[in-house]
Design a protein that fits this description.
Growth Hormone, Chain: A; about 450 residues; globular; mainly alpha; 20 helices
């Protein structure tokens, strides 16, 4: 008997699968970016440097970049490894395994006695963070109706800005309100919130089963070398180049939002003669302001990839987002703006730099057959992170002057040239508009 259709011609179970992957990716981003929010308290504490001093700001900027680069390398390794695991043992099993891995790794950071231990825990978490995306994206693409694949993929990625909203909220409540007078310990409680996805993973395991497409396509173990056969070489190159362009831009920009917003807030606090408590509240408030503007823009931009992709095609969609990303970055970090206006500029940056990622959840699965879908999508989306790992380090190396926040903003201006390079790569994009998902 045919299953009853619900909203958008999708069954209740198909919505459940989408929701399971949505939660997995949202908590993935939540756990992955928590460190950026607490770094200004965490790094000085572990290095025994007074919080809020110029030395603490410089060390925080430095270690945010180093830690982000290590996270990206682990993300790339985990994405490639677990992409193959998803094709071999199943999407659902891999989704739950990776959620447990990044939950435990993040929560363990709360007990870090020093920076090396914290970085090790971040690396463990990054393996799960990288692996979750490929499993979730492949699972959604294979379960939802063909005509709703683009919409479902974009909806899946809306969990990323929601995850960042949650991270912003958790840090604001714990560090900015409940424990604002205890910055040396508040960050540990923020990291403990990373355990939340573990509980969600156990619940999801009771209801979600493996996609029928994957069961039918099981055969020889997937090999990464197959992605470079004449049949798939163009698709692999297309997915890799588009993901690399977007990743380089996103990580170079987003990783330093709390640092820049916090630095601007500290400058304002000095001018207005705020005390320690008032300064802490202003810093956390401006962090939330900037990140919420970025996340809101990302949420709207993610949804806008649907009409852009369906009516204009994937290649044109990438072109529009990359062009507008460059304009937003040039304006935000070169124009003479007030502090408040600069914080609000994170909305158009999020709309473009963040929003384009809504397309990868459906574009990358479209490029590969079922047997190689997790492997291919995981490779394209995550291997680029190896190169992307250089982005945060370059920002740090450019921000070593007496005013690290100002020099970081100057460096971010030049990040705007990355999406312009992406525009030059558009002739290599494989157009998948109207293509049926290949078995």
């Amino acid at each position: 008997m045919q299953q009853k259709r619900t909203f958008w011609e999708m069954t209740g179970y198909q919505w459940l699968v989408l929701f399971a992957a949505w939660l997995g990716w949202g908590f993935d981003i939540f756990d992955g970016l928590l460190f950026n929010y607490v770094a200004s308290n965490c790094v000085p504490t572990l290095l025994h440097v007074p919080i809020g001093t110029p030395r603490a700001t410089q060390l925080t900027l430095q270690w945010v970049g180093i830690t982000a680069s290590i996270l990206l390398l682990g993300w790339a390794l985990g994405g490639t490894l677990f992409g193959k695991v998803a094709d071999k043992v199943g999407r659902t099993k891999t989704l739950l395994l990776t959620m447990l891995l990044y939950s435990i790794g993040t929560a363990a950071c709360a007990f870090a006695p020093n920076l090396p231990f914290l970085i090790f825990c971040r690396f463990i978490a990054s393996l799960g963070i990288g692996g979750e995306w490929a499993a979730g994206a492949a699972m959604v693409a294979e379960v939802v109706p063909e005509k709703r694949r683009v919409e479902a993929g974009a909806l899946l990625y809306t969990s990323a800005p929601v995850g960042l909203f949650l991270a912003t909220f958790v840090n604001l409540q714990i560090s900015g309100k409940w424990l604002k007078d205890s910055p040396e310990t508040s960050w540990r409680y923020v990291f403990l919130c990373g355990l939340i996805p573990a509980a969600v993973a156990f619940i999801l395991r009771l209801f979600v089963k493996e996609p029928e497409r994957w069961k039918a396509a099981k055969g020889l173990p997937p090999r990464i070398a197959e992605l470079f056969t004449p049949q798939l070489r163009k698709s692999t190159l297309s997915g890799f180049l588009m993901a690399l362009t977007a990743l380089l831009t996103w990580w170079s920009v987003s990783n330093f939002i709390p640092t820049i917003a916090g630095g601007l807030a500290k400058g304002r606090a000095v001018l207005t003669h705020l005390d320690k408590s008032g300064t802490a509240a202003l810093v956390e408030g401006w962090k939330a302001w900037a990140t919420n503007a970025f996340n809101l823009g990302g949420l709207i931009g993610t949804l806008l990839t649907v009409p852009a992709s369906k009516f204009l095609g994937r290649r044109a969609m990438f072109g529009i987002y990359f062009f507008l990303s460059a304009i937003a970055l040039f304006a935000a970090f070169r124009l003479d703006l007030t502090d408040e206006a600069r914080l609000m500029m994170y909305f158009p940056i999020g709309l473009t730099v963040f929003g384009v990622f809504g397309s990868f959840t459906y574009y990358l699965p479209e490029l590969f057959p079922t047997r190689l879908r997790g492997t291919g999508a995981g490779f394209c989306y995550n291997v680029g992170r190896v190169i992307t790992a250089a982005g945060p380090l370059l920002i740090v190396s450019a921000a070593t002057s007496i005013s690290p926040v100002l020099s970081a903003m100057n460096a971010l201006f030049y990040v705007g040239f990355v999406p312009l390079i992406g525009l030059c790569l558009l002739p290599l994009v494989v157009e998948t508009k109207g293509r049926v998902l290949e078995d």
